[in-house]
User: Which sequence fits this backbone?
C-alpha cells in the first residue's frame, strides 16, 4: 500500500487509524524541495520515500533547469557523469527511491550508471543548499 503527496500531518492522521501502514509515500523531491523532515519521519516509521520530479517537472512552466545548477554541474564534471545522473544519485543518497524513466536506450543505460559513483558530503551539502521550498508539480500547491 502506498500514498502520494502525504505530508507529516497526513501521515500522522493515517497512522492513528490505519490497519495496514503504507509502505511508500511518493512525493515531489528535488534540490529546490528537499523535504528533510518528511524523509526523516518516513524513515522513522518504516515508510519508503519515492521521489518524483527529481529532474524537474513537466507539470509546470518551470523557469529553471535543475541541470544548470552550479553544484550539479561541478559534481557532474568531477565524476565525469551527466547532470541527470548527479541529480538522481543525490536523491538516492538522501535516502529516496527513484524511478527514472526514458524511452531512449542510451538514457536507460545512463541511468544504470548511478551506482558507479558516489557524491561526496560536500557535493551533497552544496546541492542541499539549493533548497527554496519551491514546488513545481501540482501547480505549486502545498499538500500540507
Assistant:
Amino acid at each position: 500500500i502506498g500514498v502520494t503527496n502525504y505530508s507529516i500531518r497526513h501521515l500522522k492522521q493515517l497512522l492513528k487509524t490505519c490497519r495496514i501502514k503504507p509502505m511508500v509515500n511518493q512525493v515531489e523531491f528535488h534540490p529546490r524541495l528537499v523535504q528533510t523532515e518528511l524523509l526523516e519521519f518516513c524513515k522513522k516509521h518504516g515508510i519508503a520515500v519515492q521521489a518524483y520530479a527529481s529532474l524537474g517537472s513537466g507539470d509546470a512552466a518551470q523557469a529553471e533547469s535543475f541541470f544548470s545548477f552550479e553544484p550539479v554541474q561541478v559534481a557532474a564534471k568531477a565524476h565525469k557523469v551527466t547532470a541527470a545522473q548527479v541529480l538522481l544519485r543525490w536523491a538516492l543518497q538522501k535516502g529516496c527511491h527513484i524511478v527514472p524513466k526514458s524511452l531512449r536506450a542510451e538514457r536507460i543505460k545512463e541511468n544504470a550508471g548511478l551506482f558507479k559513483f558516489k557524491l561526496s558530503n560536500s557535493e551533497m551539502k552544496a546541492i542541499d543548499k539549493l533548497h527554496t521550498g519551491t514546488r513545481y508539480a501540482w501547480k505549486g500547491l502545498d499538500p500540507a
About this structure: The CA atoms of residues 19 and 40 lie 22 Å apart. The mean pLDDT is 90. The radius of gyration is 16 Å.
